[in-house]
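Take a look at my tokenised protein here and describe the backbone shape.
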Amino acid sequence: MSVVETLAQTLVGQRQLRLVEALTELEPLDNHQQVGVSPLRAESEKWGLESGAITSDLKYLQSIGLVQCFESVAGINNVFIKQPGLDAAGEFKQLKCDLRKRVQEIRDAVLNWLYDLYLQDVQAASTNAFVASDRGNFFGEPYTQSELDRAVRWLRSEEYIKGVAVYGDELLRPVLTPKAIRTIETGNSVNALLTSAGVNVTEVHVQGSSGVNIAVASSNVNQSNTLTQGQIEQVEKMLGSVRALLNPHILGVTDEVIADAQRVVGEIEAETRTSTPETRKVKALALKLMELAATGTVQGAIDAINTVVQQGITGM
């Protein structure tokens, strides 16, 4: 996972990516990608930034090698954008315009928008009101009307929303179905559920045990609490992302903490390479990584590690 993909996992990281992108759009002060920061401070809302966080975000971006800050007693006034920073800005722009990601993300965005209104006992007049909402964008890039129409059409056909259909794909007075509410409240994505279509799921709680796969109403199935090959591959991806952040300057921790974290990463790798890697042991070690990361002082990096580890644990 690249630096951009890792940062994009958290709201703080997304803000930092918007800052890198904004820096590349400013008029250079010289021929070497040096720009002044004052325009961003003066019009932070225009750029989708938080004025109070610009200084700390710049320092974090410097710690991961994307920019070089020129700081005086007056603060950081000028910034030199390094090549990795220019590359990150370009990659972020591509990510925001990725049509395949956008077509799936907008489905969940529309549902969550309606759910927010549902919790406030507010009725949306039309699905077209979504584009002007806080959720009407993908990493800051507004969704188009055609993307919304496609999403509404899909959500209706899959029985997640209903309302009064008018010309085109617009719905008047849209409401969530019980199926949609269950999906949101269980923390699932409508896209993730596509892979389990037609499968009956039974929840079984085992007292005093975790990480155990239970097969219900199945024949010729061997019960197992070991990782599958697919889960091992997901753990390996998780470790790759974590390694990229295991730096004392990035996390704001001591060398000893980094050494402990690297040792835990090694233990996870060793367990996945055994003939019967235990799910429970890998989960426990992954949680240890989160505990070590929590001792850091750079919240953006802590959030990034927590996100990728949680995603790894969820897939087990």
User: Anything to note?
Assistant: Residues 127 and 170 are 6 Å apart (CA to CA).
